[in-house]
Amino acid sequence: MTEPARPDESLLLVHAYLDGELDAARALDVERRIASEPAWAAERDRIAALRRLVRERLPVEAVPTSLVARVERLAARPRTNPSWHALAASIMLAAVLGSGGTWLALRTDNTDVTVDALVVGHVRALMVQPTDVSSSDRHTVKPWFNGRTLQAPRVVDLTQEGFPLVGGRLDVIGRTPVPTLVYRHRQHLISLTALPRRAEPAWQQRARDGYNFVRWSDGDITYWAVSDLGAADLDRFAQAFRAAPRGQ
């Protein structure tokens, strides 16, 4: 039995690149891959969005003066022998600096993180390139995802319902490439992303930053539709997709 393809762990180089941890030659190589590979560009955008989220939701707070004084006192003690006081001071300071990230990780709902990533992917597609494979033929779009993602979405023809298929692309959610179908309604694009199903809050519709979302599950896949399309029209798209014959 063939094992499913594993996510590309080399995407972690994007993190090192954005943190300035790579030498010049490796950084140049990463820049080239970001420019040529959609999954790498999507990962860069996802990290940038997460950093913006941290800045917006976690205002910088000054370290308490009492803690600063205590660290300075510990660090100033004689160091004739390796000092556990200095070690304790460094651990305390690291804890203070790192607590913001821990707080955010504990506080932020996984659904919110997913929504933020989907917005980033949709906006990037609008600004750069909506699709990696452009076709209105579902028999062309569906096979394109083979070997590129862990789950394959249903690809249905909704032209008669007013939502023609435009193509598909790869987005990155949680460091994993995921399939996104692209449909059109008049001048509006709809990004429909297929993610592994998991326990989630019970909402089906939501709005964020001027974009509407509809979510539903089908077997072991959860579909997320995002667009600047009106909520009623996006809901009509979701209903049409779900009602399409299973043979599609």
Short key terms for the protein model shown above:
248 residues; alpha+beta; Phosphorylase Kinase, domain 1; seven-stranded antiparallel beta sheet; 7 strands; 46% helix
Written overview of the protein:
The chain has 2 domains: 1-108, no CATH class; 110-243, Phosphorylase Kinase, domain 1 (2-Layer Sandwich), CATH 3.30.200.100. Helices cover 46% and strands 20% of the residues. It contains 8 helices and 7 strands; from the N terminus they run ααααααβαββββββα. The chain has helices spanning 12-18, 24-36, 38-57, 65-76, 84-107, 110-127, 138-144, 231-243; strands spanning 133-134, 165-173, 176-185, 188-196, 205-208, 211-218, 221-227. Strands 1-2-3-4-7-6-5 form a 7-stranded antiparallel sheet, sandwiched between helices. α2 (24-36) crosses α3 (38-57), α3 crosses α6 and α4 runs antiparallel to α5. Mean pLDDT is 74; it is low at 1-7 and 79-109.
